[in-house]
Amino acid sequence: MKCLFLYNPNSGKGKIQKKLPLIERMLKTRYETVEIYATKSAEDLKARVASAAEEYDAVVFSGGDGTFNLVLDGIGESRVRLGYLPSGTVNDVARSLGIPKNVKKALKVIVGGRCEQLDCMRVNETGYAMYIVAAGAFTGVTYSTPQRKKKWFGRFGYVFECWKKHMKFNSFPIRVTCNGKTEEAKAVLVLVMNGRSVAGFPVNRKASMRDGKMEIAILRVREKMGFWGRVRAFFGIIGLFIRGAGFESKRLLRLYGEQITIETDDEVVWDLDGEKGDTGNTQIRLLPKHVMMFVPKNKKI
Known about the structure:
By secondary structure, this protein is α+β, with helices and mostly antiparallel strands. It contains 10 helices and 15 strands.
């Protein structure tokens, strides 16, 4: 049994690098061979994951949600088992699955947990997303916030970036087709979700990563917003994140399904697990049981 551990030596103030002896020692309780590889770039990570999928029984990696997204791109159609040590700013995938941020506890999930087949999302046949595909208000903050701010201020770095660049709440037209039903609206925020946590909040708290469906939440606004329209949009967003996607509101459109097509302006940018994705029209389909991953033994996922 062979295992590969991947980490970025420059992330998280080098905390993972200091834990390498512990990581190697614990992984060897399950795997005869453990190789440790320090990635050099995002492309290097994806390339190493792609080759490792054919060579190893398991790929273990540390990082945040963006790193998880790169790993998904790397494994493609492979069925290699994944182990995750969350070390990012928010770690929504880990929150959704109940994987602890503590390195030793996360390692115990890998060496003593269970391996489950989880759903993920395929976006425009060019990319993957594990827990969120989003557009609109605040969604650009995850990839526009400089790494140094995230490193030194954590989640507050996102808050600073929001106040600086993401408070305009520009609306955009959408035409959504899901399960044979088509809706048209002006939207200020679109969330296509597979996980429970978004930006650290349990927005989709009743969801599961293995229920075979996506949950879609669209916050609608009037044709002309104006000052008070923007105020209502702001409180609508706050309500969505605090109360969750299940709360009742005439401005909130909720859909469920295995495939969704969204037609919109070319300038609309899509966020995939916190990483900048395609613009304009998008098609998202669920890939049931696509990801093999170690999860806590007694945690409902």
